[in-house]
Specification:
The chain is α+β, with helices and mostly antiparallel strands and 243 residues long. It has 8 helices and 7 strands. The longest helix is centred in the middle third of the chain and has 28 residues.
Length: 243
């Protein structure tokens, strides 16, 4: 997806009302994180939309408008005495709408949906598994050497799969531990991140399933960590390895 395609998709996207997990929207939002020019354009677009909506909500419709139209009244005298207060109120509404829009935008690009979409896209495309390990203990040792968190809990059902290695990644300043696995010629990936500071991170131990880029994923939390399991397989295969 290029910048122009992302703009076309994001022109129709409204944070908080539209589904950010839609594959095209998720990919466009991910491009926003990587492309500063696109990020500036998207922020300006969201502010403009918010200001227009706020202006429409604040617009005053005279109570006798219908009667005026029916009477074909041709002279409408504006009340200039009220213009200044109305302009100040409109300006305040625009500033407030901009602040709210910025907060919503921040939550969208820094929240769990954006994280999940980027992690799945990372393994769905070509990626480097730069830590080689034959089991989870060996993976933890390498992560510890890199001063990466190792306090993650591997679901019991994953203990029997073949561990290939993993990675020590970062996402918006948060450390992410990645375990790469394989079972029956199908790949699985377990991402672990400290959920503190990530809006809408999972808050329950019961996994929640969602399809991202045609890959089944499951998200849950345990302790201070949030877990994301993805598989290049069908949903039934993924469910076999959930806690």
């Amino acid at each position: 997806m290029n910048r122009d395609q992302a703009k076309e998709i994001l022109l129709r996207y409204r944070p908080g009302r539209d589904d950010a997990t839609d594959p095209q929207v998720a990919e466009a939002l991910m491009l926003v994180d990587w492309d500063p020019e696109l990020a500036r354009w998207f922020e300006q677009q969201q502010r403009a939309d918010a200001a227009i909506r706020a202006g429409l909500r604040e617009a005053h419709v005279p109570d006798d408008l219908k009667q005026r139209i029916l009477a074909e009244e041709k002279i409408v005298r504006a009340d200039f005495g009220r213009r200044k207060p109305m302009m100040l109120a409109a300006a305040a509404a625009i500033l407030l709408a901009g602040a709210i829009s910025g907060w919503v935008y921040w939550r969208e690009v820094n929240g769990w949906s954006a994280y999940r979409a980027e992690m799945v896209h990372y393994v769905a495309s070509s990626y480097n598994m730069y830590i080689k390990a034959d089991n989870f203990d060996e993976l933890r040792q390498v992560l510890a050497q890199r001063q990466w968190p190792t306090d993650f809990i591997v679901p019991d059902r994953l203990q029997s799969v073949t561990v290939l290695g993993g990675g020590a990644m970062q996402w918006k300043g948060h450390k992410v531990a990645l375990a790469c696995m394989k079972q029956n010629n199908r790949n699985l990936w377990l991402f672990v991140i400290d959920k503190a500071g990530i809006p809408n991170a999972p808050d329950a131990e019961t996994p929640r399933l969602m399809i991202i880029e045609d890959m089944p994923t499951a998200a849950w939390s345990q302790g201070d960590n949030a877990y994301l399991l993805a598989a290049r397989a069908d949903e039934a295969f993924l469910k076999k390895y959930l806690p």
